[in-house]
Amino acid sequence: LEQGGTPGRHYYSKNLQGKRTHKAHVCEVGHFEISRMLAFRDFMRDHAVEANKYSNLKQTLEKSNKTGMLEYISGKKSYVEEIIEVAIREGYGNKSNKALHRTPRSGTGEL
Question: What is the pLDDT, as a whole number, of residue 91?
Answer without folding.
Answer: 95
